[in-house]
Amino acid sequence: MTKADIVTEITKSTGIDKASVLSVVENLMEVVKDSLAHGENVYLRGFGTFQVKKRAEKTARNISKNTTIIIPAHNIPFFKPADSFKEDVAK
Predict the structure, then answer these.
(1) What is the pLDDT of residue 11?
(2) Under a CB-based contact definition with an 8 Å cutoff, are residues 73 and 57 in contact?
């Protein structure tokens, strides 16, 4: 499902025009992205949590060149679904 599909589904179920729904969906994504960039988690009760995990620095190998490289520490976003979300998907 794409963003356009989501906007279409919300438009059908609410009767709100597509432009307004698209604006809300894009603003939601922007707020989530900005919050995570500032180190804040986003909790959506009944849906899940968007969080940031810190990955430690690690050493990796480039097998084709037989060299070692250092991958620096970095943050990575992830989503943890709520229990009710997991139960609905498992059905």
Answers:
(1) 96
(2) yes
Say if residues 47 and 89 touch (Cβ distance below 8 Å): no
Rounded distance, CA 60 to CA 70, Å? 6
Residue 78 has pLDDT above 90, yes or no: yes
Q: Smallest Cα–Cα separation from 36: which of 53, 52, 55?
A: 52
Q: Confirm if 55 and 76 have CB atoms less than 8 A apart.
A: yes
Q: What is the DSSP letter of 66?
A: T
Residue with tokens 């060299």: 67
pLDDT attached to residue 91: 86
Please tell me the pTM assigned to this model.
Answer: 0.78
Tokens of 61: 């190998």
CA atoms 33, 39, 45, 47: torsion sign: positive
Under DSSP, the state recorded for 38 is T
Cβ atoms 67, 61 nearer than 8 A: yes
